[in-house]
Amino acid sequence: MNTASNSQRRALVVGGTGIAGRALCRELVAQGWHTASLSRRTTAPRDGVEALRADLTDPGSVRAALAGLEPTHVFFTAWSRQTTEAQNITVNSAMVRNVMNAVGPSGQLRHVALVTGLKHYLGPFEAYGTGATRDTPFHEDEPRLDTPNFYYAQEDELWEAAERHRFSWSVHRSHTVIGHALGNAMNIGQTLAAQAALCRAEGRPFVFPGNEVQWNGVTDMTDAGLLARQMLWAATADGLPSQAYNTANGDVFRWRWMWPRIAERLGVEPRGYADRPRPLEEQMAGKADAWRLLAEREGLVEADLTRVASWWHTDSDLNRPLECFTDMTRSRSAGFTDYADTLTCFTDLFDTLREERVIPA
């Protein structure tokens, strides 16, 4: 199934301008794939990528954008945040279904890789980390939680399409992703960099926004590049079954250890957890104008703070009521042994953000 050379493989990255999609496009182009990116924007995530635009919730728009493309591999990294989980299920399952209906009938499709995440084990945003959850480290073969979850609905759409169109599949359950993508709704590294830039500009300390559980508990994270490499491995390695894989860097840490080291690299004074959480939506309320002035003064590429930082998402991650890390045995045993040091991932991201003038030098 996977014996074709990379030049004969045609990749479609759904959500190619996002945090995972950008890293995936970079990896695909470097390996010589013909690569197309499908997103709401026409901007190509990098040179060598064909940019396609569609409203993923509109079947006609998706069919028109993908007419004649006939990809051999699809990497689905997109999602759309809605007000309720019921709406998340409706919208995000339809996005998977619309793409599968557009590319499946060609008969060329060999593999589809879908990015989900640890809400598979923790529950949806409406019930995040409450009620029944799985014990850490999370294992891929644990049963679904008894609660509606758009990740489950996306998987169901993928499995139905795979049965109908006879392609292999993989699901990649990433933890919080470290990567670079302006306008991305879930971007902790970029968010913390923006927080630090504002703190430094105003002479304020860099205050941990989370709760005591996250400050003291064990956690892990996922580098966007490692996620891309695992997806490519699962899509092309011979003999792998269709199944889900946890995707994390391979190290674990506590935020009480990580926070001062991040602060040092961002040039700010760290303040840890004390008495209660200090959410970023509270700390950074009303900072849009301050960021705009900072962007003008420093010549930054994005003056709209909402496209740089996602306070709500980082607050959600750093206020979970339980520790959160995954077991990586399944993919390691199958041959994927890649590893990333999380502090180095943060450091490299901050360097990139400075070079690209997203944050001040």
UniProtKB/TrEMBL annotation:
Domain PRISE-like Rossmann-fold: 72-360
Signal peptide: none
PANTHER family: 3-OXO-DELTA(4,5)-STEROID 5-BETA-REDUCTASE (PTHR32487:SF0)
Protein name in the entry: SDR family oxidoreductase
Matching InterPro entries: NAD(P)-bd_dom_sf, PRISE-like_Rossmann-fold
